[in-house]
Amino acid sequence: MLAAAASMVASEGLSALLDLRESPVVSVGQSVIALTPGPIAHAIIEVVGTKDKPLAVASVVVAILLLGAVVGRWWLTRRLAAFALVSLLVVLAAAAVLTRPYASPQGVFAAVAGGFVLVAVLQLLLAPRANAHAAPDASRRTFIRTAALIAVATAVVGGAGQALASRRRRRQTVERARAALRIPARPVEVPAGADLQVAGQQPWLTSNRDFYRIDTALQAPLIDPSEWRLRITGMVDRELTLSYQDLLDRGLTDAWITICCVSNVVGGELIGNTVWGGVPIKSILDEVGIRPGADALLSTSEDGWTCGTPLDALTDGRDALLALTMNGEPLPVPHGFPVRQVVPGLYGYVSATKWVTEWKVTRFDDFEAFWTQRGWGERGPIKTESRIDVPRDGGTVDAGTVTVAGVAWAQHTGVEGVEFRVDGGPWQKARLGAAPSVDTWVQWTADWDAEPGDHAIEARATDATGKPQTDAVADVLPDGATGYPRISVRVS
Ligand SMILES: Nc1nc2c(c(=O)[nH]1)N[C@H]1C(S)=C(S)[C@@H](COP(=O)(O)O)O[C@H]1N2
Ligand SMILES: [Mo]
């Protein structure tokens, strides 16, 4: 295991030294993500939520350490098998590196170097043991001393590699370019009456820092805005390539839009609301001219993730944006800098491509996007839902008048009303906050006359067409969760 740790640290350190975009360990992690079947990915996200990334990296590291233990065992008795396993690991790592969209020979070199270090450390540690029959105690002492030295060296090189990696040139260039952008700043003001200011409730406007993050990238792509391009091809009259400046020159439109992840469970927090600034997608599609028969926009991110969006939703006049700003600032890197899509009313996996660099106007019949290949629905309209934020689920409150509050959403249709009920009793109307458009969530609040005892509170939203959210419980797979949100409270 020590040899495997040294091997990983060596290949990570080398990657940092060579200023590689991705180390072999990260490439292997990305391949694991790409190869994980949909239902398993879904089960993992449900259990670990947004901790999925550290978990993916940790599993790869642990797997390599365990395989190192196997190699070490075999080294003494089945040398050939040990070599074969090391070679297999190197080949798999190299394959992971080479199948990434930005494969590099240096990445393969880093993987091979890792293999050499693994063998070298095993040789250092175990060669003296092979002829240790004469003086077993001396041999054990040598082993422990060598192992300690290697452990220290591994820690030092690991720390240095980490420090190097965090100062990557590319990260600095992109952070500097982002900081230097002077996008005509509009002050962000929460519309009057939208935030009901209920103690303990999440703000109506989600800050960039608190905004949920979901994507398949172990490291967010680092794109210099001056190098960013969007290539538009497919069933269009005129192909077009746009630069960041081209978008700025068109002028930015602001829109309040709540975006939501299909993996958001009922009561979940994979949803956020902010003001986005960008160029209407429709204006660009009008410019390139959509050919008859097309019904989908296939968008691809710089790191190769794909997304299929119904053209209808992009051209029916709603605020579908190619967004450059989030909450009045250039997009944060993890949220898609320099440019991403935002489409009201569709779950993120079919609409919200971050780090977008390619558009192909096409037909749903002719492709399958990343999550559709893994069993999620082809189109993902956001389902009407509500959430109870106050009181806290499992909390205790004093008997008397208790504030109940939460949010509700029916993006691009609008919320007409929210009700809550206690222990399956009659529905009681809640008061709604203001909403600047039908594309955001609304806050709701109500007074509850709470009697001592244990109670269950449920809520339901009704959309602007008069349709209440369904009580039918559905899982997030394949196209979004439904059911009433429900909390338990103790009234003392
Ligand atoms: N490039 C890229 N864009 C992506 C994704 C991704 O994995 N890669 N995930 C999508 C999903 S599933 C969601 S819910 C939203 C989340 O956007 P956020 O992280 O800014 O909240 O981004 C979408 N855009
Ligand atoms: Mo998502």
Structure description:
This protein has three domains: 2-167, no CATH class; 229-374, Oxidoreductase, molybdopterin-binding domain (Sulfite Oxidase, Chain A, domain 2); 385-491, Immunoglobulin-like (Sandwich). The chain has helices at 2-17, 24-35, 38-48, 52-77, 79-98, 105-130, 136-166, 169-180, 244-250, 281-288, 311-315, 370-373; strands at residues 229-234, 240-243, 253-260, 271-280, 296-301, 306-310, 321-326, 329-330, 340-342, 356-362, 385-390, 396-397, 400-409, 415-422, 428-429, 431-432, 442-450, 453-463, 486-491. The chain has twelve helices and 19 strands. It starts with a helix and ends with a strand. The strands form four sheets. A five-stranded mixed sheet has the order 2-1-10-5-6. 36% of the residues lie in helices and 23% in strands. The longest helix is centred in the first third of the chain and has 31 residues, at 136-166. Strand 1 (229-234) and strand 2 form a beta hairpin. It is α+β, with helices and mostly antiparallel strands.
